[in-house]
Design goal:
The protein is mainly β. It is built from no helices and 21 strands.
Length: about 300
């Protein structure tokens, strides 16, 4: 009797599940996240692309200068265009970096609102804070459908006086993050970086020292700051290391006699500052360290 052998059939079941995220942060402010998943060799493959762009932030670069009086500076209003260039709806949030410990960040008021046209004045639903404590995005900027874009109006203003914040600077970075639903899949555009500074009077230039009429005095000479003539709206003052006023000279007088009695520190370091008479902004000062020997003083 002939026997038959039965060969066991082998069954293969392959399940492929993958998730990949690719995040691109480009100088244009484009960030993208892509993920794919497949159920099985007999199932369907789905794919989604998440990306967003932010344009126009560098237009926020500015220097706060006087706008007609000594107390106020102009308000800067600029436009950011935010677009969902992916295939998934996004919910948006805003964060600001580069401001930790910065004194000016808390003195710059930040207001946000959306607009369908130009950003001429503060619109309805605006949110307000500071660069140090930024507001939430306004309701019209919280989400976007695939392919949709909107205009985010950004207003910044100095909430102190020019003189009170003179010479300060801050370089914040706006990061707009788009999230898919309640998932952890996000795309960010963190290169919306700009710089804002507060005007400060420039220093006098070409500071020199020459012997005075006796060994107890020297003569300091300088030229006006760049952009100012021999008179102009500028005066000068000599201060010591503690900021104490030693000598004051009106505009047009760019020399001063310094005696040993005027130097109260060792070494004898003084600063020559230019002061803008119209608004009161004072330059940091050009330093000079004079030699001392008893009641005698001499140039370095």
């Amino acid at each position: 009797m002939r026997s038959f052998s039965f060969q066991t059939m082998r069954t293969r079941l392959a399940v492929i599940a993958g998730l990949s995220v690719f995040l691109v942060l480009a100088g244009s402010g484009v960030a993208a996240a892509v993920w794919t998943s497949a159920a099985s060799v007999t199932g369907s493959v789905t794919a989604a692309t998440t990306s967003l762009t932010v344009g126009g932030a560098n237009a926020l670069d500015t220097q706060y200068a006087f706008a007609g009086d000594a107390s106020h500076s102009p308000t800067i209003v600029r436009t950011l265009v935010i677009k969902n260039t992916g295939t998934a709806p996004l919910g948006y949030t805003l964060s600001i970096s580069g401001i930790a410990g910065n004194t000016l960040a808390g003195s710059l008021t930040l207001t946000l609102w959306t607009s369908t046209g130009t950003c001429l004045s503060t619109g309805a639903g605006a949110t307000t804070g500071t660069l140090a404590s930024p507001p939430a995005l306004p309701s019209g900027a919280l989400s976007a459908a695939p392919g949709a874009s909107f205009t985010l109006c950004v207003s910044t203003a100095l909430n102190t006086t020019i003189v009170g914040s003179q010479g300060l600077t801050v370089t914040p970075t706006f990061t707009i993050t788009g999230t898919v639903g309640t998932s952890t899949w996000t795309a960010s555009a963190p290169d919306a970086t700009f710089t804002q500074t507060v005007y400060r009077m420039a220093n006098p230039t070409s500071l020199t020292c020459s012997p005075g009429k006796s060994d107890k005095t020297v003569t300091l000479s300088w030229t006006a700051p760049v952009g100012y003539g021999s008179t102009g709206n500028v005066s000068y003052q000599v201060v010591d290391t503690a900021g104490t006023l030693i000598q004051a000279q009106p505009g047009g007088q760019t020399t001063v006699s310094i005696g040993s009695k005027d130097v109260n520190s060792t070494p004898g370091t003084l600063f020559v500052q230019a002061k803008e008479d119209l608004y009161g902004s004072t330059s940091p000062g050009v330093s000079i360290t004079l030699g001392q020997q008893g009641n005698k003083i001499f140039c370095p």
